[in-house]
Amino acid sequence: MSNTSFLPTTINLKWFYGLGLTFIISSLGLLLYFEFEVGIIFPIVLAIILVGVLRSDVLVLVITFLVPLSINIKDIGEGTGFGMNFPSEPITFILMIGVWVKFFIDGQIDKQILKHPLTKVILFYLFWIFFTALFSTLFEVSIKFFINKLWIITVFYFLAAQLFSKTKNIKRFLWCYMVPMMGIVVYTIINHSQFDFLQKDAYWVSKPFYIDHGVYAASMAFFVPILFGFLVFSNTFRFSNFMRFVIVLFLVILLTGVVFSFTRATWVSLAVAALFFVAILFRLKLRTILIIGAFSVFIYFNYKEEISMALRSNKQDSANDFGGHIKSIYNVSTDDSNLERINRWHAALRMWKEKPLLGWGPGVYKFEYAPYQISFEKTKISTNFGIGGNSHSEYVGPLCETGVIGLGSLLLLVFMFLFTGLRFIYTTKNKENKIIATCLLLGLTTYYVHGFLNSYSDSDKVGVMIWGFMAGLVALELQEKKQESEIISL
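The structure corresponding to this sequence follows.
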């Protein structure tokens, strides 16, 4: 469905515009006149809904632009524990309501998107989160978690997939995130330089835009393959010399930001994405890639003792020099960051064994894991008060919180995404779409590799790309199928 406006065609546009804008402006004036400042939020909400009704495609791109610039506001309402990224999350939530209202009024949605295998997996993934939330040990926490997933998937998968029926909108989406992010990366680098680029300061210099240096680094990693693709195949995209200069400049800024983020998981994820790109060049099938992965796991378990001894012999902690910091990646003897991850994973596995089918409830881990730690596994940065974040794994966390079926739905989602991407890349004859699909595939691959060591998908700073990249792949495939069916019908 190429039309991304919510407005029914029978409504007179001039009257709709006129009455809507008149009401919003007069409301603002009256509220200011009577000094009811808090009430100003209502006409602003109406204005957002009006834009969403008239041009939801524009609003999606506006939200994408605002996401990197949004600032986290904690504990809204004093003691409620409710926080948000402002202004991106409230606007996304309002747009989600508009999407569902529109759907229930006229029932219109692109059925080809609904029929796509990846969409079916996403719907089951959402259903299982909701179902396990009903049995959660902390129901309120889990329902909030589900609603957070629902609004970002509604807008950045279902609505975006319709918007992306035109390839140019995928490129607009990418630039809408990249441009403000580059400003934040420059801000962070300048901020970090005042502290001589010390590793200990990398954790906070991206604030207030990215409150966690891991989220900051993971977000940048999505766009390294994008910019490389745009640069190497600039002739295919017919970029001007000025645009080529901008792409080179952005790539230099981005790589500098990645290096000085001191986020080892991001460095590893980019290395794996590079290897995956080589596999794509050799047109390896997903089955072959999975066999190679399974063989690697077999080797690990066959030589587990020898590998463990080798890892324990590494005493290199996180360091300011890059060589030492890279070596610390596999230090599981003295590096507190690595040891704390292992502590969190072991606690999550103990929790899962207690509730293997339904888990403890989505988003609940950080409030419940403390008693499941063992004293000799704790580190200097361990906590018993639920303030240390989540399980630090995109895979162990769902296992603990939504049970074995929840983890299975996530793994099926990753598999279906990879399968969809490779299938399209290997079959399409449209060179530009092939390049975009490859960049999207590699970009999201960086996160799913990163996800072995961290979990940031709950943040819209990362979630926008996860679901937006999936939407882009699905839209490209459906676009090509539509073109093929039109040719056949001729």
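The chain is about 70% helix and 0% strand.
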